Amino acid sequence: MEKIKIRVALAGNPNVGKSTVFNQLTGLNQHTGNWPGKTVEKKVGYVEKDHYILEITDLPGIYSLTANTLEELISREFIVKEKPDIVILIVDASALERNLYLLLQLRELIPNIIIGLNMLDILKAKRYKLDVKKLEERLNIPIIPMIASRGIGIDELINKVIEVYEKDNLDPTKIDYGELEEDINKIESILPENLEDYPKRWIALKLLESDPIITDLCKKKLKREDWEKIKELIEKNESNPIRVATARYNFIKKILEGVLEKPEKQAISWTEKLDEYFTHPVWGSFLAILIVALIFYLTFTLNNFLAEPVKNVLDFMGDKLSSLLVFLPNWWRDLLIEGVWQGIATILSFTPLITFFFFFLALLEDSGYLARLAFVSDRLMHILGLHGKSLIPLVISFGCNVPGVMATRTLEDEKDRILLIILDSFIPCVPRILVASFFLSIFFPKQAFFLLILLYLISFISIFISGKILRTKVLKTSFNPLLMELPIYKIPNPKLVLLYIWDKIKHFLVRAGTVMAFLSAIIWILSHYPTGDIQNSILAEISRFFSLFMKPLGFNWELTTGLLSGFVAKEATLSTLSAIYGVSGSELGKILLENITPIAAFSFIVFQLLYIPCASTVATIYQETKSIKWTLFSMGYSLMYAYVFTFILHQILSIIGIL
Amino acid sequence: MIKKLIEMNKGQKGRVVAIRGGRGKILRLAEMGITPGEEVILLQKSLGPVIIKVKDTNLALGKGLAESILVEVGENGKN
């Protein structure tokens, strides 16, 4: 028998255990993509039950359905345009008042709502008393009591979805907006039928809230005299938006009267006890430094542990592959092995690093500490024009930009995220520092340490300058001020942590791997065609051409080639220079000393620190933004910035004549 | 006594009187539970942001936001 599909949307505030519910419902039977044209993640999962198949779309965590954020806009557009059969709203029972705010907004859009009343264990720990039956009656909406972290209520939720789908006669209690009702009704009576599928009453409310998108829509679609009438009603009272919000809270208060009982003296929760230390101005900062340093150390130490064996396995696979492909002409085989496979192997070699990092990030996020870290580091990040949530992506980028770019997912705002992704690549990762150290030890052995510190300083200055430029000229945004909920602390759920890591790695390997295989093949062809010798390759020709532009920075064509191949992987800069000069190690040092001036060498170090991030990072940027435009912009911007910065530096150094 | 949220002492209770700023900002705060008349407790202060408790939720507010919220607190800093 053909299965019947029920389309379900899962909604809720952040930190209410919504992802837990989603993962408990669908397990591995889910896939992640992005909302069309957006950098926001979209998850869809499936549950089969009897002759039904539930297609569950996980909407982003939101506090409201105003068009304040991209997430809110995505959620409401999905509900209005895609018309899911049922919306499950997950609410945190221990903070019911604020959670029901979203319910009221949802109810104006769609009648078929089921409430998943989650976190009943926390409610109990707070010694709150909640009459679920009475709440259900007053709202006239089915409620499923849940403790999702322990799987309680999941089956009941599935059954209820099917039951509601079969009956299809929900009619939740109408929300009373008190003194605003009169204006709402007036606006409703003026509005035409069928305005882009939005219910009239909902539009009226959004107009009173001065929702920019709905206001624009009405301005365009309505007859002029109608719009003037409505405009008058909206603008009659300056504080209409807040009046709507207050009316909703008043309605909620009325609903909860005699339903929710709080004890006279509230028990001090574990979370509050821990926060005494974790958010303390002194202890909190101390603990934050300790925890971040520990994660950084563990991630890269554990990775070093596995790097060698993984490299051996990949080399072995490369050899095997090579012997399997003997039937191909040499040229083709080398392209496949040294180009395509090498690119894939490079991405694969990141697997241990990504795994360990996301393991720790999942622990931070799921335990609730990540929000505290953002709080503690907020002041410091303000100096760079960012806010607290940018700390982890930036810190981890010192090791490697790839997980750094991936970690920007913890930022909610799309523009904030893009800004941080671009800024991330100015953080010098370990391979870049290796290349810099090699040059420093040859040209400035005595001042190497001091200059290395200077390089880090240059990267901070670049983040600061670029942050300013991008915010004001390109993204036209100010980094949103910190406003976030501090969720309760909890022991991370192993199943969720594993799912989280698996989800990240799977996509990284597939998408970044594809891009990387492609880029690596191109660079291989360029550096081998036509003679197989890098000196006479197209790459060298291109470099000779580009070195015209690099002259003002003091680079010869050999250094330019090093930079071009450094795009594949930063450490390749050195091996390419070795290949061109035909020597390596200290011998390479000697030749470089003979051919390059110290000023050019220092300019080169700075340039390679700032120019386009490596191909793996570029592939990750594409995977995270899903936008060719932003990926190319990130490359172009960093290249241009590096050029201008190094140019000025080179001129100043040449004029004052130090080094 | 009326003062800015950021000027409250740690552990002090207050009632929101007004929020200064544009409509978008005011609505955003309202959606997170901060509306006029609502009781807030200041849980933690730092050099920049503060943590408050409002409607059973602990919220971290950046310095700028905490400066734009006016609260009524009891005399002598107690309430």
Give the SSE layout:
The complex is a heterodimer of chains A (659) and B (79).
Chain A: E1 4-12, H1 18-26, E2 30-34, E3 41-49, E4 52-58, H2 70-82, E5 86-92, H3 96-109, E6 113-118, H4 120-125, E7 129-130, H5 132-139, E8 143-145, H6 154-167, H7 181-190, H8 200-208, H9 212-221, H10 224-235, H11 240-256, E9 260-261, H12 270-278, H13 283-324, H14 330-348, H15 351-367, H16 369-383, H17 391-397, H18 401-406, H19 414-424, H20 430-443, H21 448-474, E10 483-485, H22 494-528, H23 538-550, H24 557-565, H25 572-581, H26 585-595, H27 598-610, H28 615-625, H29 628-656
Parallel strand pairs in A: 1-4, 1-5, 5-6, 6-8
Antiparallel strand pairs in A: 2-3, 3-4, 7-9
Chain B: E1 2-4, E2 13-19, H1 23-31, E3 39-45, E4 50-54, E5 57-61, H2 63-67, E6 69-72
Antiparallel strand pairs in B: 1-6, 2-3, 2-6, 3-4, 4-5
Describe the overall structure.
The complex is a heterodimer of chains A (659) and B (79). The longest helix of chain A has 42 residues, at 283-324. With 659 residues, chain A is of the alpha/beta class. In chain A, the strands form two sheets. In chain A, strands 2-3-4-1-5-6-8 form a seven-stranded mixed beta sheet, sandwiched between helices. Chain A has a two-stranded antiparallel sheet with strand order 7-9. Chain A has helices spanning 18-26, 70-82, 96-109, 120-125, 132-139, 154-167, 181-190, 200-208, 212-221, 224-235, 240-256, 270-278, 283-324, 330-348, 351-367, 369-383, 391-397, 401-406, 414-424, 430-443, 448-474, 494-528, 538-550, 557-565, 572-581, 585-595, 598-610, 615-625, 628-656; strands at residues 4-12, 30-34, 41-49, 52-58, 86-92, 113-118, 129-130, 143-145, 260-261, 483-485. In chain A, helix 19 packs antiparallel against helix 21 (448-474) and helix 20 packs antiparallel against helix 27. Chain A has 29 helices and ten strands. Chain A folds into three domains: 4-167, Rossmann fold (3-Layer(aba) Sandwich), CATH 3.40.50.300; 180-261, Orthogonal Bundle (Helix Hairpins); 268-659, no CATH class. Chain B is 18% helix and 39% strand. By secondary structure, chain B is of the alpha+beta class. Chain B is globular. The longest helix of chain B is centred in the middle third of the chain and has 9 residues, at 23-31. Chain B has one domain: SH3 type barrels (Roll). Chain B is built from two helices and six strands. The interface between A and B is large, with 40 and 33 residues. Strand 10 (483-485) of chain A pairs antiparallel with strand 5 (57-61) of chain B, so a sheet runs across the interface.
